[in-house]
Amino acid sequence: RFAAAAALVEHTHQVLDSIDRLLTRLGDAEANHRGFLLTKDRSFLEPYTRAGNEARALAGNLVALVAGRPAQQARARRLATLAGARLDEMAYVLDVNDNGPAAAVARISEGLGKRLMDDLRVLATDMRASETTLLTQRANQARLAERGALGFAVVSLLVAIALGFVAISVERSFARRRGALMAEMAARAAAEREALAAASNLQ
């Protein structure tokens, strides 16, 4: 029971970690995207692309992690949609930037990218709040299960000790009985020898 409860706690930590990593990867993508637009240095494109790919993978994995919990999974699906839309918007800005920086600036000025990230952060906060509440519940269950497991272990140890004392007592009792029986048999043998000796003397 304790192992199952501990596994659920670990699972909740994985969900929280995935949410945080998703936001971090999106932030990395935005930073490198902005770096390229400002400097035209193509070395920003590789980390931008890598961060975007990792963000998409994390978003998909997050949906799978909360399977079986309809409300949280709906949030995860929405989060994945927003993350994809933000990444698509960054890619579109790069495309229009080929027509000149003015086109890219105009697109960014429309504010779609900012609105997507704002919505994404709000949703991520809601997901974290739900997971944190669940984490508290599961941690309490794990503590109770741990206490139960510890209590069972203590009881088992006490029973084992008691059985050990019983076994020792029984062994000692048997030893005493064996000793008494051997003494009785020796006494009988001695008596029989004495009787035989007396009978021989009478003859």
Describe the structure.
By secondary structure, the chain is mainly alpha-helical. The chain is built from five helices and no strands. The chain has helices spanning 2-39, 45-65, 70-97, 101-109, 112-202. Helix 1 (2-39) runs parallel beside helix 3 and helix 2 runs antiparallel to helix 3. The model has no long low-confidence stretch (mean pLDDT 82).
Beta-strand level of the residues, as a percent range?
under 5%
Cα-atom radius of gyration:
39 Å
Q: pLDDT average, as an integer?
A: 82
Order of helices and strands: HHHHH
**Which structural class fits the helix and strand makeup?**
mainly alpha
Largest sheet: none
Number of strands: 0
What shape does the CA trace take?
rod-shaped
Quick structural overview:
By secondary structure, this protein is mainly alpha-helical. Helix content is 92%, strand content 0%. It starts with a helix and ends with a helix.
Characteristics:
0% strand, rod-shaped, 5 helices
List the helices and strands and how they pair.
Blueprint lengths: L1 H38 L5 H21 L4 H28 L3 H9 L2 H91 L1
Helix pairs in contact: 1-2, 1-3, 1-5, 2-3, 3-4, 3-5
